[in-house]
Amino acid sequence: MEPKDKTNKREKALVVFSGGQDSTTCLYWALNNFSEVHTITFGYGQNHSAEVECARKIAMREGVPFHYMDVSFIGTLSSNALTDKTITMDSESPEEGFPNTFVPGRNLFFISIAAVYAREHGIGNIITGVSQTDFSGYPDCRDSFIKSLNVTINLAMDEELDIITPLMWKDKAETWKMADELGVMEIIRNETLTCYNGIIGDGCGECPSCKLRKRGLELYLEEKNRI
Ligand code: ZN
Q: How remote is the CA of residue 28 from the centroid of ligand 1, in Å?
């Protein structure tokens, strides 16, 4: 008997999709590299649900399955400025320790849940936009963590899933370059939300996330104009 779904597991990818610059760039990269792409978006109690709407809109337009998961318990586990409106956000990374925008365990939960989803849908690849280069001091964006989690996930479910991190060694300027090469520069610039204050596109320009995004864009455009 013919299997119902003829697409090979290795040709399918699930993108952990927040609607921000990095994961949206990863979505378009995935659409260029896999024959079937799904997205999974998490509501972790973040103060701004606008990013979920950005993600939904982009996924709908590209015709990729969009799966929303409410994991708001994650935000209640720790004290951090992304899920608690009463905490004022650090404008710079502190000399020691983490910025208070760090949500402990976030990528651990997200990727573990994504792995179960992938397994249940016969998907062999999980794509996440984490970067060790511009990791804002978050330990769960580092390559060693992702590699370790990949081993753990496969041991947990006796699977052969691959966690792919296209941006791991790219800084923000290189991520903009990638978006440009994929032909989606304008979509990333105007329709994604990276700003911690919930403003789409170029954002508030003041929060650490906007500063990082803006600096990267300026660097990339300078470099491009020189050529
Ligand atoms: Zn901002």
A: 23
Q: Is residue 32 part of a domain?
A: yes
3-class secondary-structure state, position 48: coil
208 within 8 A of 102, measured Cβ to Cβ: no
Enclosing domain of residue 20: 6-171
Q: Are 123 and 35 in contact (CB under 8 A)?
A: no
Phi–psi pair at 178, nearest 5 degrees: -60, -45
Domains of the chain: total: 1
Domain assignment present for 227: no
Q: Ligand 1 center to residue 211 CA distance, Å? A: 7
Measuring CA to CA, which residue among 90, 81, 88, 91 is closest to residue 46?
A: 81
Ligand 1 centroid – CA 220 distance (Å): 19
Centre of ligand 1 from the C-alpha of residue 214, in Å: 10
C-alpha 93 – ligand 1 centre gap (Å): 15
CATH number for the domain spanning 35: value is 3.40.50.620
Expressed in angstroms and rounded, the spacing between residue 209 Cα and the centre of ligand 1 is 6
Question: In this structure, is residue 149 part of a structural domain?
Answer: yes
Per-residue pLDDT of the chain in tens (227 residues, 90 and over written 9): 555 556 798 999 999 999 999 999 999 999 999 999 999 999 987 766 788 999 999 999 999 999 999 998 888 887 776 777 777 776 666 667 777 777 788 999 999 999 999 999 999 999 999 999 876 678 889 999 999 999 999 999 999 999 999 999 999 999 999 999 999 999 999 999 999 888 999 999 988 889 989 999 999 999 999 87
